[in-house]
């Protein structure tokens, strides 16, 4: 394997992990009567270099949610290794606080090669509507139906965890997830509290509740992987804070170790529109 091929393989894995980990930096959702449209904007750094931008558009209604995410590589890395991903998730809030996904999926483009997944959730079972490449072509075992029963998509799992945090003020949960190829439990553990000050990376200032996030692998992971990503169990650390008063907490900062160095995502801007009210958290000019 050439040096360039090794770099490309590791970068591809890095962006795939970025997609998975940064969906954690997702919706401020709780099973409440809140009716709002929220925008979250993150800048992503690896080894000190700005390598990506991540944007979330979230529609919250009293009984349902819609989430769209866009991630793309930027700067020199973006010019050398162009990558982009779009993801979506929509579902409903049950009366007891549970989140019930309806549909979810993603598509990404790596140097002109397209991959996609679309999921539906029928009678409590996650089902693949279309996928490219197929798991067997991607050197993975297919996840059997019994392991997909009761599993959520990743965004719905995060909404479940944040909804719990909104009422319990502590991150502690284990939620079953099926992302179309892999079945894992998303495990979240408490990691203390902090107080952040605004800086050149993020305008947020205030108290945070911190969490450690990791995957308990169940099925569908690659049998062989030379990218350097499967040589250890990687954990992310997330700082969650209330950007808009009494609104549920959102990720302010996220860190994650990669073969290239530490990945750090900062909340660079946030907006919330509810009725005639608009709130914005942004860097000073």
The helix/strand series, from N terminus to C terminus, equals HEEEHEEEEHHEEEEEEE
Unreliable stretches: 1-14, 20-33
Radius of gyration: 18 Å
Secondary structure: helix percent = 10-25%
Structure in words:
Residues 1-14 and 20-33 have low confidence and may be disordered. The protein has helices at residues 3-22, 75-80, 145-148, 154-168, and strands spanning 36-46, 49-61, 64-73, 83-93, 99-110, 113-122, 125-132, 173-178, 183-196, 206-219, 235-241, 250-258, 261-274, 277-282. It is built from 4 helices and 14 strands. Strands 1, 2, 3, 4, 5, 6, 7, 8, 9, 10, 11, 12, 13 and 14 form a 14-stranded antiparallel sheet that branches. The chain has 285 residues and is α+β, with helices and mostly antiparallel strands. The chain is 16% helix and 51% strand.
Q: What secondary-structure arrangement, pairings included, does this model have?
A:
Layout: H1 3-22, E1 36-46, E2 49-61, E3 64-73, H2 75-80, E4 83-93, E5 99-110, E6 113-122, E7 125-132, H3 145-148, H4 154-168, E8 173-178, E9 183-196, E10 206-219, E11 235-241, E12 250-258, E13 261-274, E14 277-282
